[in-house]
Design a protein that fits this description.
Layout (H helix, E strand, L loop, with lengths): L6 H60 L20 H8 L27
Helix pairs in contact: 1-2
């Protein structure tokens, strides 16, 4: 009788294959968990770095505005269009008070959207 026709051998081989499949699935699940955790950490670092970069560009824009420097302003989370402010607004931004008031006297960079300020600038 060939070894593959032996019912005991078939049962043992089936049990080994099932155990191997179960162990492989456990390891695969653990690997996916580690990968997901790594992706979450990476996304968090990316978000934090982006926030720091945007804040730095806001500060640079404030310096340009406070000194009435020529040239374009960087687009940031607080100023997505890269609009210039007046000197007072630039000084306020550099001092940490936000974007201040624009040349029209309306608040700039407040983040609140209104009918008069649909972009919340």
């Amino acid at each position: 009788m060939p070894p593959t026709d032996n019912p005991i051998s078939k049962t043992i081989q089936s049990g080994i294959a099932s155990a191997g499949s179960f162990a492989g699935n456990v390891v695969d699940t653990a690997g996916k968990s580690v990968q997901g955790a790594g992706r979450g950490v990476g996304d968090s670092i990316t978000s934090q770095t982006s926030s720091i970069g945007s804040s730095t560009r806001d500060y640079a824009n404030g310096i340009k505005d406070a000194t009435a420097a020529d040239g374009s302003r960087s687009q940031t989370a607080q100023n997505p269009l890269g609009l210039s402010s007046n000197k007072a607004g630039g000084k306020n931004a550099v001092a940490g008070g936000g974007r201040g008031k624009g040349s029209s006297g309306t608040a700039v960079g407040t983040g609140r959207q209104t009918a008069a300020n649909p972009l919340g600038l």
